[in-house]
Amino acid sequence: MNPVLDDILVAAALLASAAYALFALGPRALKRRMLSSVAGWALRAPAWLGLRSLAARLGAASTKASGACGGCDNCGSEGAAAEPSASGRGADIRIPPASIGRRR
């Protein structure tokens, strides 16, 4: 093969690897900006490439608000507002030492 083409292919592979690592390990704000910019590029592409649906999906992914863990988006807000415990002291279980029996 042509050595120049070899160098271009290696550079493209390294660039793709670096972009993936930045996307996977980077902050969420960076991910959203990257997704929205790629969606913008896909919208500006010629219509015959058929990238309109991809642009719509990327745009939706960039505006999606995700929770801290990336899961259910409630971040424990429902669990904190749950009913108080019967003792009124929170989640601690209080057992008086006198009621604890000894093993034989």
The chain-level structural class is mainly alpha
**Which term fits the overall shape?**
elongated
Q: Cα distance, first to last residue?
A: 83 Å
Radius of gyration, taken over Cα atoms and rounded to an integer in Å: 27 Å
Largest sheet: none
Helix-residue proportion: 40-55%
Q: Residue-averaged pLDDT, rounded?
A: 78
Strand element count: 0
SS strand fraction = under 5%
Question: Number of DSSP helices?
Answer: 4
Task: Give start-end ranges of low-pLDDT stretches.
Answer: none
Descriptive overview:
- With 104 residues, this protein is an all-alpha fold.
- Helix content is 54%, strand content 0%.
- It contains 4 helices and no strands.
- The model has no long low-confidence stretch (mean pLDDT 78).
Outline:
The chain has helices at 3-25, 28-44, 52-63, 77-80. It is mainly α and 104 residues long.
Task: Give the SSE map.
Blueprint: H1 3-25, H2 28-44, H3 52-63, H4 77-80
Helix pairs in contact: 2-3
Key terms for this structure?
single chain, 104 residues, mainly alpha, 4 helices, elongated
